[in-house]
Amino acid sequence: MKKHKKPMQAHKPGMPDRGAASFAGIDETLIQWGLLLILIGTPLIIDPRFSSIELTKVVWMWVISCGCLLIWSIKAGINAKIMVLKTPIDIPLLAFLLSCILSTCFSLIPHLSLIGEYKRHEGLLTLLNYAALCYICIHFVRETALMKKGMLLVVCIGVIAAICGILQPFGIDLSRWGSGGTPISFFGNQNYAGGYMAMVIFLGLGLLFEGNENNENTTNPIFKGKGQKIIVGIGSLIIYICLIITKNRGGFLGFLIGLIIFLILNRVELWKKRKIAAIYGSMLLLITIGLCLHEKTSPLPKLTGTVRIVQSQGKEKIEAAGTFANRIQIWKTTINVIRDNPIFGIGPDAFRMAATRYETLKFIHAEGGYNVLIDKAHNEMLDIAATRGLVGLFVYLWVLVSFFIFVGRLWKGMKYPDKWLVSAGIAAIFSYLIQNEVGFGVVPTSAFFWILTGSIIGIGIKNIEGSSYTLKINSLLRIGLPTFFLLLSIIIIRYSFLACAADVYYKNALALSQQQNTDQAVYMYEKALEYNPNEEFYYGEMLAAYSIISERSRDSFNLLIKRAEDAVKINPYHAYYYNILSSSYGKAYVLYGDTSARKKAIDACNRALELKPLFADPHNNLAAIFVHENKYKEAMDEIGKALKIYPEHAEYLRILGELQLQQGLKTDGISSLEKAVKYDSNLVTARASLGRFYFEAGSLSKAEEMMKQAVLLAPDNPGYHGDLGSIYYKQGRFDKAASEFSTALKLSPDNNYFKQMLSNCGLRVW
Fold it and tell me: 421 lies in which domain range?
């Protein structure tokens, strides 16, 4: 009788197979390690080869987050199911993601909003990443013991970053970024460093007081009372020192509000532990006083410089001062952006491209820089409303309100020592939110914020009945989900590699430009755009380099025009690129007689002025065209418009002065040229123009004074030596005249006038 083999038993749905069993536990550990690596890397990772300090940090976060999602999807595929936690922020967070996606779709520049502004990198990709981190933490950080380990790690990272920041003013730069004596730590900016310290210090506080509880379940000696107290106590003081010396007003304000929240939440327990609270508080006070007494470390001048008292109509009046006054002007500009783009905004991280339309003279002068671009609103709520619309602001507030309502309910049901940890996280979150109302978050602080938010929800949701359910997935999704996240990981890794390689080339190009090695710099700029062709920021410096080499030949000049046209194609909202394009077309018309370029130059000027109405340079470009056409009145009108924006701009005053002299307005012309020299004593062209006028007017002593200064400032200019020689000749000082004409002839050997005048001087001397 033939024996039949026992049929293979079918795998029962819902039961883990061998693959699932072997994978169990590994996935959670890997994902948790991924979160820890993000907490370690985003503050500390820095690569001096790059121009953007944020690029390494955001790439690190992107790649590791994709890895975590891939592991999660593989687990779901193996188990044929996925556990879903129901949280109070599910719907708000989904709405948040949807608003970000819609805002990107309706963005002024969708590809910029997708990746994010250069050196900011907070486009849609990063915003989705933040939400993913929050949701990963909700699912995989569900125990206070795990949160505690993460907090202790973050405090250690904060101490390392703080020590780096503290040493930098003393010339020791562990970051190798080039701090210039500023406490930037590993963040590239002292405000970013201060903001991070203002969050991390609360984790140290929470662990300090939690370390006084009975940790009976802890076997690791580092987590027991004294060891933990020493580590976090000293560490948090070091972090506080760094916060103070960064002189970051937003960070310090966030710290104070967070501290108030921490004290209110733990007021009863802090009274029980008043001894250690008093000791720690006294040390903070002594550190504050000590640092404030030293001029180099005191934040008081910057804090008190926020306002000033002025006399107005015989009365004293308090008004904003310093960078705070600038902030107010930026906020007013942002409100105008919101007014015209209320629904979905202008697109994530696209603020720089829209703000120029709404600038006022007060805003421009408050910034104190020539053609300064602002890429953030310096107020998170206004920035969200501008870039993601009122819809985006509403859903963001919805997420926050839902979170804090949940935390309020969670707090009532929690007990100490867990409350120390959760209250520390809440204080850090408040610190982040408050400091961002006068500044903005960066990748290290924003990622930290979302990880804290998700971790607190994950800890609180575990004890809520019915908070989880299992969602079975079919065969298509079992394969589709891992495949999708695998492809996403490959795309992110590939883009990250290309972006990093491009930034290395860009950094090298900047260095070569400073060394005036323009040809090699242009090559490096082109290589940067070859690797990352959509990074419009690279075009700015590259076009400046092309402008230098464009003077060599018509071909190189045409190449400048071609690259300027490429720049405005990739970013049609960049007023500065249109200005460069208008200048290039204008030169093609004026220098090379290309009449077809005239209209293009004027159109590009008008587009630049449409995007940035208070833009002086296009008026200067138009003036050059009108001068070429002998339309001096029109040229003077354009320069006058430029001077209304920058009344003390020496070069514009020089041009206006020369035009006024040409039109016979001698008094006005001399006044304009003298103002030009007053505002820029090194403006050699203004001195030369004044010297020539004084010479023609017979004021030889004044002419001599001006031309001597011109020769000192530009000793290689033969014309200036010739003009000074002519002055000496007319004064009868023939030896000096011969010396100047001799120098001029050496610089310009074929100049017949110099030869004739030198001959005249020789005859007279003989």
Answer: 80-304+317-473
